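Entry for the shared binder. Reason: the reviewer on the internal report wants the predicted structure included alongside the sequence.
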Amino acid sequence: MSFDFLRDTHKKVHFIGIGGVSMSGLAEILIENGYKVSGSDRSESENTKKLREHGAEIYIGQSADNIKDVDLVVYTAAIAADNPELMKAKEENIASMNRAEFLGSIMKGHKYGVAIAGTHGKTSTTSMMSHIVLEEKLDPTILVGGNLDVIGGNVHIGKSDYFITEACEYKESFLKFYPYIGVILNVEEDHLDYYRDLNHIKDAFRKFISIIPDDGYAIVNADDENSMDVIKDAKCNVMTFGIENGEYRARNLKFNDLACGIFDLYKNDEKLFTVELNVPGKYNVVNAMSIICASLALNISHKSIVDGLFNFRGTHRRFEFKGERDGVKVIDDYAHHPTAIKSLLGGIKNYPHNRTFFIFQPHTYTRTSTLFDEFVQSFEGIENLILEDIYAAREKDTGIVSSQKLGDAVRKTGVKAINMHSFEDTVKYLNENVKEGDLILTVGAGDVYKIGEMFINQ
């Protein structure tokens, strides 16, 4: 494999934020291909430990002193301009590029790049696609935004022309990619710390469609009005999918005792095959439809599509069964957007359980503030809602919003909601209130999953 920006594999690449899911995967790809790698992060993690075992120089904490004999610096969109390592690189005229540019440079060397975009569902859908291309034995390179058991982590390094990755729209990152196939699952308001409004977001997705070559494919959710709006001027091939609309439809849809979908795939009025999923919810049927289309565009066999989807049992932190204690099941999910929360609630309706204890940790002050009303409405029908403090991620608390304010607004709608300010207090509350047959859901993009683990381990 060759990279346009580095022709000498003896040169060294430094990653600022190397422990992140995507960054650690990129670092592993370089190590596998003979490059020297170093990197820093705020804290130790399983990803940093794994990279160290593979030969990377890992620094905990970020300092200008970490930039030693470096030829290229790669940084994430969350890294501030005053980061000491980035400033050192600029002072010494060391080449630098952000994560999206770097990923795009690697992707450019693959003929069949599949980039899966959308406001939500990207990780689960990329994971489904991974199962299918591995079932077909295409030897792909895969980057997933979560840990997937079939590849033993978040990256699989192949030697073929196939490259499968998520395509995040944050700060228009996905415009740095080189997709042969671009999948659009949905288009909604999010990342409003960067985008002005929905129209600004839709413009970004239109640009994403425009970078697909004329002989490539845009795979688009026909049940999502915003997604259909962004492909009106597409010059590439277009394949549409959906349950209610689209060239490719899921018909005769039903759900088994674990809320997993079974459906017949039709192209217009022609039945192609039957699909049985082992992940719950209608939203996963939609996810599956998207990568069925992508697989057909790549001429993957029907058998590999059916078997790959059947063998997919989920990605870590996506409706992940964490365990059970005293007859109480614990499931963790990454949902951090109002629509994703509604989809999750729809997905558990047929899941066997008595009462639900829904523990939600809002992710970032900006998202909580800009989508405040949507969040309030998304919790409709929840029996027992527990709200944790906001997970700040890259942001600072300006005081404009809080989990307490969200809780006050939710309670006014009639939903039973309580605010908790420590994981220990939440576990104590669960111990005193849950009964055999109940379901605990830990929900959010932060570290809320720790509550479920604490409960189980007690």
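Summary line for the report: The longest strand covers residues 270-280.
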